[in-house]
Design brief:
The structure is a single chain. The protein has about 375 residues and is α+β, with helices and mostly antiparallel strands. Helices cover about 30% and strands about 30% of the residues. The protein has nine helices and 20 strands. Strands 6-7-5-15-16-17-14-18 form an eight-stranded mixed sheet, with helices on both faces. The protein has a six-stranded mixed sheet with strand order 9-2-1-13-20-19, sandwiched between helices. Helix 1 links the parallel strand 1 and strand 2. Helix 1 packs parallel to helix 6, helix 1 packs parallel to helix 9 and helix 3 crosses helix 9. The chain starts with a strand and ends in a 5-residue tail after the last helix.
Length: about 375
């Protein structure tokens, strides 16, 4: 039975472990140097912008569509396997369009999505006011509603994926750091040296986010993935915004207002790049600006209490498109699934299915 190791316990690594756990002919071990769902996963808002994105063809769209359809199947499976329900908002995404927005471009996207089997609606200002009365910004001229897009809790999802994978026989080695990788002359990964001892492997998946760069360098095939910081916050109101029975994600000007229930909302997120000397630190004033933008859309948020703020580093490939999902060049049995930047949660299922297809082909296994 081939032994495959997965390095990385964020949402991408967890999704890969869950997908591969459906292949009984594999022995699987997932290694995570911390606890699961830390780093970028722990800071994500879980907004799945697929149909409402302007990606309409090629890999970028295929991965989004695959993931959206996959989540609708995965969530009930995970809840049944784990015996736990977790937040999964199926009420869609409302994108707010300011004056000057190119409505003709949106009309084209609406037609394209209709042909692809997805529904987008263009709401007038009056329709938006009727359906989302919490939006009271006179500069908003229209809105696009995507009923097929979703939002979920990335931490709860990751823990559920790992729980289900473990039930299916995946071994979890947490707080275990991979310090070196021994490869044969032909690039075949053979042994992982870890803080918990050596691990012989027949294949390796690197899904370690920013940690993927030193790991690939250890195999002499370095992939340059750099950090981009994002900050977000949780706020609390005495009651929900708008209609209690219609709580979609609101987004506009790259600001997300994510309903969590009982008057709580996530608001985010900033996009902060390293400075000229490569240093990266969270700037509270930038998060304040995000909150101010959210209040401009929904003035009732000015009465909200900030109950939590946090930040995380997103892995962004340098000088190439995100994400990197491919066999690692120069190796025989190593696959890279990293550099998802701001779309790790959205693209995790499609990434997992791509990795599974390569693994099955490499080992000559029947599809799950």
């Amino acid at each position: 039975m081939p032994h495959l190791a997965i390095i990385g316990g964020g949402v991408v690594g967890a999704a890969i472990a869950y997908e591969l756990s459906h292949i009984p002919a594999l022995h699987l071990t997932l290694l995570e140097q911390h606890q699961p769902a830390q780093a970028s996963t722990g800071a994500a808002l879980g907004v799945l912008m697929g149909a409402i994105s302007h990606k309409t063809k090629g890999r970028a769209w295929r991965m989004r569509e695959t993931s959206l359809r996959c989540y609708d199947a995965w969530i009930p499976e995970l809840e049944k396997l784990t015996g736990k329900a977790f937040p999964y908002n199926r009420q869609g995404i409302v994108m707010l369009l300011s004056e000057g927005a190119d409505l003709a471009n949106w009309d084209t996207l609406i037609s394209t999505r209709r042909a692809q089997g997805w529904s987008l609606e263009c709401w007038s200002r009056d329709q938006l006011s009727d359906r989302c009365p919490q939006v009271q910004d006179d500069t908003i001229m229209a809105a696009i509603y995507s009923s097929g897009d979703r939002q979920l809790d990335p931490t709860a999802l990751t823990l559920a994926l790992l729980d289900a994978a473990q039930q299916r026989g995946v071994a979890l080695k947490l707080e275990t750091t991979v310090t070196a990788v021994d490869c044969a002359a032909d690039g075949t990964a053979q042994v992982l040296h870890t803080t918990d001892g050596d691990l012989a492997v027949d294949g390796l998946v690197i899904a370690a986010g920013l940690g993927s760069t030193p790991l690939t360098a250890a195999i002499a095939q370095p992939v340059d993935i750099r950090p981009v910081l994002g900050q977000a916050m949780r706020v609390r109101l005495p009651e929900v915004l708008g209609h209690p029975d219609f709580q979609p994600v609101l987004t506009g000007s790259d600001i997300h207002i994510v309903p969590l229930g009982d008057g709580d909302y996530w608001i985010g997120a900033t996009v902060e790049f390293p400075d000229d000397v490569g240093e990266l630190q969270a700037h509270p004033t930038l998060l304040d600006q995000v909150l101010e933008g959210a209040i401009t859309f929904c003035p009732s948020l000015s009465q909200a209490q900030v109950v939590q703020t946090w930040s995380g580093l997103r892995p962004r490939p340098f000088n190439r498109p995100a994400p990197i999902v491919e066999p690692l060049p120069g190796t025989a049995n190593v696959w890279l699934a990293s550099g998802h930047y701001r779309n790790g949660v959205l693209l995790a299922p499609a990434t997992a299915k791509a990795i599974a297809a390569w693994v099955q082909k490499f080992f000559g296994l029947e599809p799950a």
